[in-house]
From TrEMBL, chain A:
Pfam families membership: LRR_6
Subcellular location: Cytoplasm, Cytoskeleton
Residue stretches in coiled coil: none
Organism: Champsocephalus gunnari
Keywords: Cytoplasm, Cytoskeleton
Organism ancestry: Eukaryota, Metazoa, Chordata, Craniata, Vertebrata
Keyword set includes Hydrolase: no
GO cellular component terms attached to this protein's record: cytoskeleton
Record-given protein name: T-complex-associated-testis-expressed 1
Predominant subcellular localization, coarse grouping: cytoplasm
Gene3D superfamilies: Ribonuclease Inhibitor
UniProtKB/TrEMBL annotation, chain B:
Pfam short name (any one): NYD-SP28
Annotated stretches, region: Disordered: 1-43, 423-463, 535-565, 584-603
Compositional bias per record (Acidic residues), positions renumbered to this chain: 1-20
Name recorded for this polypeptide: Dynein regulatory complex protein 1
Subcellular location: Cytoplasm, Cytoskeleton, Flagellum axoneme
Residue spans of biased composition, Polar residues class: 423-432
Length: 449, 674
């Protein structure tokens, strides 16, 4: 970069000047040593003859600092190890992020960014998918996470409106040029190190071109995504938010996710999943090893909750369940409370803003008394009433495991709320002590071994 | 649209944009504050986890602040759920209304359709018109109803839009508030933690200081106690040591006494025992000695015997060797004597041959000499003849025959005659004239010495032994520089006479003078002195010193003979003597050999032949040259004359002819005249 990557343009103004201030390596007095000249020529001709492995570490650093960042990736990707060069590449792309999120690897950061950029700027039927096919083998070893914040729809014709209507009304009608987005099938199975996948079907900065369709995933999108996810055997975390996913799409996705070998976390928050979708997810709970399930801000009602509760009562892997901002009502709340009596693994339950009232509170207080696995319970924004509060108060007096309990805005009496908080705090301190003891014993044990 | 107002700062919190979007999509919701919640909850949790002894104040602070932040979230949740409920309610109402509308419109529609069927039955145009009007009214009514519904719905939508916008604003406000609170929380927490930290530090430092002082105090006390104890022990120890020392001293003295007593006793007994043992030993020793002596003698005898035998053998060997050597030598001597005899014979033979050859050579030489002499004499005669001719004929000068003694000689010149010739001859005189006077004197002296060779003994006798001795001593002193220093050093301890003898010996050996020449040398030295004196008298302009000496010598001429000899002149005298001596020796050697060799002095021969060659002297030769010159001139003139003779003759001839012609012509003319 410093040595003018394309000489014909950069050489002219430089030759006219005596001192080149922009070049930090420029110095009038020193005559460059022969080794440096050789390295410089290696750098200049790196594209035709990449010499890397034979260099000593010091020389590698030299080359890394001077190699042009516009070098084609097929030359550099598998040759140059993580280091200054990739940092420079990232700087060129702009906006360096926190390196610790990328396992302290500049190379990983660069390739993930690069791939995300490519996908986010992909326009179906316009961009050649071949570029991805070429790109994937170069970066497959370095990408561990893909965080795709937008997916562009195909270029729409003016007469599109009819079809939009059509697709909205008749889901099966998927002939002709649809609103399908990027097809992840072409690459997801080849990224052998991918662990985290985060997709949002939306368009950023759309401005006045706004269309509702831009913020939806189509049926075919869903299918292709589901297939892609299924093919990616290393995936651990899947996040699919804000994508207008209804029951049918949810069921389609779940169908492909069944028996996934490595999936640990599923986040489908801010969608339109209803009872049918919830039922499908309940089925998924026991046909996978999910540990975290986030269904917040969906449309799940009592029947869906019942299905989930049924699944919970049989499950032994799930640690965290988030059902915030759904419409479980007492029907669902009671069902979950009953299910938890048979569950020994769930640590975290969020039932905030679910129109649950005192019967559910009573059911959950039973759980709190009988089981000591649950660590965190959130019942905020539910109209539990005085009875519910009292039931919880009683339950908490017999409980010593719950370390978080949120009962704000639940119409509970002040007294019972403060009592509950008191118990929670004592439980917290107890927990701390236990932790401290454990860490101590761990330390000592490690010290012993 | 909503995303456009999103700050990059907010980007790290995805939930916020979710909120915006959801609000728009109308599905419901406010915000999933789960993440910040988690964050905020986690933070204190972790810290608490790390620091077990966190005071209640900080925990409370944590809790309160967290609840302060999460309150907003829960409130938002509640509002959202409320909104959802409201929305649902509105939807339900709308649906009901729509249903009602549907029913009413359906009734009206049925009525209308009925009306249509009635109107077909009616035939009267007025009725028909009425019915049509009625229908029209009904239709209008329906349309109005529908329009009203549509308006209502549109209004609702508008209200919804407004509300949405309001909600959005509220959300942003809430978000800002929440951010603010979070920041505040962070700040206050940081402050609290800092304070806590400082307090803890202070407490720790205090504690440590207290502990330190306490420990120091304890340490000092302990040390003091220890010191005291140690001192006590030390004193006890010293006391005990002293006691023990006393005891040991007493014990030592006791033992010493006892030991002494025992020693004296033992000494006495030992002496007795020693005496006894001595006696015994003496007895034993005598025996042993005798035995030993015998053994020794025996041993030496055998030794001597073996040596004797060895010697004898050696003797025999040596005698054998001697015999063989003697034989060898006798043989050798015999052989050598024979050889010697043969050599002598050879020598004699060679001598005879030599004599024979010498005689033959002499004869040959004589003959040659005579022959050449005759030839030369003839040549001389001829030269003289020519000279006389030149003188008489050409010059007209009377010519005298020069003196030529050698012309009478015949045969080679004999050596005895030559010196005399030289002495008497003109040539020798010339040569003498050329020489240095001193050298001449020397030569004279030499000559005298040579002449006086026969009378040397007489001279020797003349010199008394004493003078000789004195002269020799002087010589030794003066010519001492010739001797080596080492010799001189060696001679120092000897007596004077011995010294002189040895010195003289060495000196003579250096100079190459034999012992018999010594008297000669002495005489020469004395004579040299006399000569010198004569010289000084002759020259008269000598240095004052020499004059003085001369005077001195003159004043006491009668003093001892040796006093004449000036020590200073010894060295030059010696030099001259040596020169002379060498020459004399050579001459003497020459004389010895002249028996066989005609001791030919080539110089004499040369002189002889020279004299022959120079019969015509230089003046004569010059005369000759001039004569020749003149003669040549004369010859040239003659040659000219001879060249002119024919010319003259021809001229005379011409003249004669001309005269003849003239006479004729005259005759003719006369005749004619006549």
């Amino acid at each position: 970069m410093s040595r003018s990557p394309n000489p014909p343009e950069a050489a002219d103004p430089r030759q006219l000047r005596r001192i080149i201030a922009e070049d930090p390596h420029w110095l009038l007095s020193t005559v460059p040593s022969l080794s440096n000249l050789c390295l410089q020529s290696i750098v200049n001709r790196f594209e035709e003859r990449p010499i890397w492995e034979d260099l000593s570490p010091v020389h590698k650093d030299f080359v890394q600092e001077r190699l042009s960042t516009s070098m084609p990736l097929h030359v550099t990707a598998n040759l140059i190890h993580d280091g200054v060069y990739w940092k420079r590449c990232c700087e060129k792309w702009g906006g360096i992020r926190d390196l610790t999120h990328y396992g302290n690897s500049w190379k990983r950061m660069f390739f993930e960014k690069h791939m995300e950029n490519m996908i986010e700027l992909f326009i179906p039927d316009v961009t050649e998918p071949k570029t991805f096919v070429e790109m994937v083998p170069l970066c497959k070893d370095y990408i561990k996470r893909l965080n795709i914040s937008q997916l562009l729809p195909p270029v729409t014709e003016p007469q599109k409106e009819e079809e939009e209507y059509g697709s909205e009304l008749v889901i099966e009608n998927e002939d002709g040029p649809s609103m399908d987005h990027f097809d992840f099938n072409i690459m997801l199975d080849k990224l052998t190190n991918l662990e985290e996948f985060h997709v949002v079907y939306r368009v950023k900065q759309c401005g006045l071109n706004f269309q509702c369709k831009m913020f939806e995933m189509t049926h075919r999108d869903c299918e292709s995504l589901a297939k892609a996810v299924k093919s990616c055997k290393t995936l651990k975390i899947l996040r699919l938010n804000l994508s207008h996913m209804e029951d049918t799409k949810c069921r389609l996705l779940v169908k492909y996710l069944l028996d996934h070998p490595s999936l640990r976390e599923l986040d489908l928050s801010h969608n339109l999943i209803g009872d049918k979708g919830a039922r499908a997810i309940g089925k998924l709970l026991n046909r996978s090893s999910l540990e975290t399930l986030n269904l917040c801000d969906n449309n799940i009602g009592g029947p869906g909750a019942k299905a989930l509760a049924h699944a919970l009562s049989m499950n032994s892997t799930l640690l965290s369940l988030n059902l915030r901002l759904n419409r479980l009502r007492d029907e669902g709340g009671q069902a979950i409370g009953k299910a938890l009596l048979n569950n020994n693994t769930l640590l975290l339950l969020h039932l905030g803003a679910n129109e649950v009232t005192w019967p559910s509170a009573i059911a959950l207080s039973k759980v709190l008394v009988q089981r000591s696995t649950l660590k965190s319970l959130n019942l905020s924004c539910n109209n539990l009433g005085v009875d519910g509060g009292k039931a919880l108060e009683e339950a908490m007096s017999n409980n010593s495991s719950l370390t978080e309990c949120d009962i704000r805005l639940t119409e509970v009496e002040e007294q019972s709320a403060s009592f509950v908080n008191q118990v929670v705090w004592t439980n917290q301190s107890l927990e701390q002590r236990r932790h401290a003891r454990e860490s101590k014993t761990k330390k000592t044990s490690t010290a012993v071994y | 649209m909503e995303d456009s107002d999103m700050d990059p700062e907010e980007a790290y919190e995805p939930s916020e944009m979710f909120e915006n979007e959801e609000a728009k999509s109308g599905a419901s919701t406010q915000e999933d504050e789960e993440d910040p919640d988690m964050k905020v909850d986690e933070e204190p949790y972790e810290i608490q986890h790390q620091e077990q002894i966190l005071p209640q104040r900080v925990i409370n602070l944590n809790r309160d602040l967290t609840t302060l932040v999460t309150n907003i979230q829960t409130a938002a949740d509640a509002k959202e759920s409320l909104r959802q409920a409201e929305l649902e309610e509105a939807r339900r109402l709308r649906l009901e209304r729509l249903e009602k509308d549907l029913k009413s419109s359906q009734e009206i529609f049925e009525e209308i359709t009925r009306g249509w069927s009635l109107s077909t039955q009616r035939a009267i145009p007025q009725e028909l018109h009425e019915a049509l009007n009625n229908q029209q009214q009904l239709c209008d009514g329906i349309i109005e109803d529908k329009k009203k519904l549509i308006n209502d719905l549109q209004q609702e939508l508008k209200v919804g839009d407004d509300r949405y916008v309001k909600d959005l604003r509220k959300h942003t406000e809430e978000l800002d508030l929440m951010m603010e609170r979070m920041e505040d929380q962070i700040k206050t927490l940081i402050k609290a933690y800092r304070e806590e930290l400082t307090q803890i530090e202070r407490v720790y430092t205090q504690e440590s200081e207290i502990l330190l002082t306490k420990d120091k105090f304890e340490w000092d006390q302990h040390m003091k106690g220890l010191w005291e104890e140690e001192l006590k022990r030390l004193t006890e120890r010293t006391v005990k040591v002293e006691e023990y020392e006393n005891i040991i001293h007493n014990l030592m003295i006791d033992t010493w006494r006892k030991h002494n007593i025992i020693q004296t006793k033992q000494h006495a007994s030992f002496q007795v025992l020693e005496r006894e043992s001595k006696q015994l030993r003496i007895a034993k020793f005598t025996k042993a000695h005798t035995r030993h002596e015998i053994a020794e003698s025996k041993f030496s005898l055998t030794n001597i015997k073996t040596r004797l035998s060895g010697m004898k053998k050696l003797m025999a060997n040596l005698s054998d060797k001697y015999k063989s050597q003697r034989d060898e030598f006798t043989k050798k001597s015999r052989y050598l004597s024979e050889d010697y005899k043969r050599k002598i014979k050879q020598y004699e033979c060679i001598q005879k041959q030599l004599k024979h050859f010498a005689v033959a050579d002499g004869r040959k030489f004589e003959e040659m000499w005579l022959m050449i002499d005759a030839e030369v004499k003839q040549l001389v005669e001829r030269a003289l003849d020519i000279d006389s001719q030149i003188c008489k004929q050409h010059l007209g000068v009377a010519w005298e025959r020069p003196v030529m003694g050698f012309m009478e000689l015949c045969g080679p010149i004999q050596p005895q005659r030559v010196p005399q010739l030289l002495h008497t001859g003109q040539d020798s005189q010339d040569s003498q004239r050329m020489m240095d006077p001193s050298v001449r004197k020397e030569i004279e002296a030499e000559g005298s010495a040579v002449q006086s060779e026969s009378g040397a003994e007489e001279e020797e006798e003349k010199l008394p032994m004493e003078t000789l001795k004195r002269v020799m001593e002087l010589l030794c002193d003066k010519a001492g520089f010739l001797m080596e220093d080492t010799l001189l050093k060696l001679l120092i301890p000897l007596g004077k006479e011995e010294q002189t003898v040895v010195k003289l010996g060495s000196l003579l050996s250096y100079l190459g003078i034999e012992e018999k020449d010594i008297p000669k040398l002495a005489a020469f030295l004395l004579k040299y002195r006399h000569q010198q004196r004569e010289q000084t008298e002759d020259v008269c302009d000598r240095s004052g010193e020499s004059n003085n000496k001369a005077e001195e010598e003159e004043t006491e001429p009668t003093t001892h003979l040796t006093s004449d000899l000036d020590p200073y002149d010894v060295v030059p005298a010696l030099k001259s003597f040596l020169r002379q001596h060498m020459r004399s020796r050579e001459s003497s050697a020459r004389q010895h050999h002249s028996v066989y060799e005609a001791a030919r002095d080539s110089s004499e021969d040369e002189a002889y032949w020279q004299s022959m060659g120079s019969v015509i002297c230089e003046d004569q030769l010059r005369l000759w040259d001039t004569a020749e010159h003149k003669l040549r001139q004369y010859q040239g003139v003659l040659a000219d004359i001879s060249a002119l003779v024919p010319e003259t003759e021809s001229l005379q001839q011409q003249n004669r002819e001309l005269r003849m012609l003239l006479q004729q012509t005259l005759k003719v003319s006369t005749d004619l005249e006549m």
